[in-house]
Amino acid sequence: DVAENGRLPNAPNMKQNGEPESAESQKDGFDSSPQLPEPSNPSNEASPSRPAKSVCVVLHGGGFIYGSPTLISRFSQRLSEELGQDVIALKYPLAPEQIYPSQLEYLVRALRKIRQLPADSAWREMKDGEGEILRDGVGGIGGHVNGKTAEGASYSSLHVVGVSAGANLALASCLLMRDLGDEPLPASLTLVGGPYSTCTTSQSYLEHEHGPKLTKAMLMQYWWLYMKGGLGQLDEWDLKGRHDDKEPIKTLSDLWCRDPLKSTYVTPLDHATSFAGLPKTLINVAEFDILRSDSVGLYRRMKNDGCDVCIKVLPGAHIHLAGASGWAENEVIKQIKSVASKMS
Question: CA 274, CA 277: separation in Å to the nearest integer?
């Protein structure tokens, strides 16, 4: 039910406004290049003094412009209980104050450092009643933590779960880490109701462009705010000095020289040449979600590229996890738990 990849009608050319803003001007004090301490065990392999432990990192939704770990705090807590793992729900810079690639650059650095830091470093004086608060000062990473970590434990494997816009960022982060040669990649990837394309002519867009939850107009606004911050006239955006992803990316800073409208790491379903090499992936989407075709199209592309991927469609549901009824949340958690059990 996926139409050929199209483009947004009369899509303007875009470019970014120079380099990342300073940490002082960034929303919520985010520093896209946090300076973190060198790990005592860089390989993060289990040792007698640092037993191995898996961790699940959750990226919240909100159209790239709002949301926080508290938006999915119940989900994170339940996921921790069901999996028996620590769950870190990361916060990340939001548009329009911080535009692409600030979010992606920050998250890749955060995922790398979570693997390197001793797991118990996230547990120092952070009690808030619902889960632990992982403050920005701890390894430069912010978010909420649920679970119970033994003293001195290290994270031997990392599982990433993204919801809505967080699913886009989770997929893009794994693609970017793959292309940068990061080893090892996260052990698994769960994508819940994410946008992966700017195509507005797919079957689900045509069926549900007016909602009842997400609408076509809302999604277009989210894309523009994420890629440009809503600044200036759309028809005056200039691409001079920008280029697409035909040349291999070498460093995170290279992202600032790329045209976001042609980037693998913004709309992977439109521009990724291959999904080969990604971790085991679960794609989850609601039956009546306007973004259903994005998920189906991504599943087909990943399957064709030889990925270990499965898709689950929640029957009768209108939207993904955020704001879904209890049974829909239960189904998502059950599916994630099933994938996790096969990884162990």
Answer: 9
Strand blocks (E) in 19-101: 52-59, 86-90
Q: Are 282 and 310 in contact (CB under 8 A)?
A: yes
- List the structure tokens of 53: 């432990």
What is the maximum span of the chain, computed from C-alpha positions, in angstroms? 60
Paired strand residues for 89: 58, 144
pLDDT for 42 equals 39
- Beta carbons of 253 and 30 less than 8 angstroms apart: no
As a whole number of angstroms, the distance between CA 332 and CA 313 comes to 10
- The residue with greater pLDDT, 99 or 146, is 99
pLDDT one-digit tens code per residue, 158-209: 899 999 999 999 999 999 999 999 988 999 999 999 999 999 999 999 999 9
Peptide linkage before 212 cis (omega within 30 of 0): yes
Q: pTM higher than 0.90 for the full model?
A: no
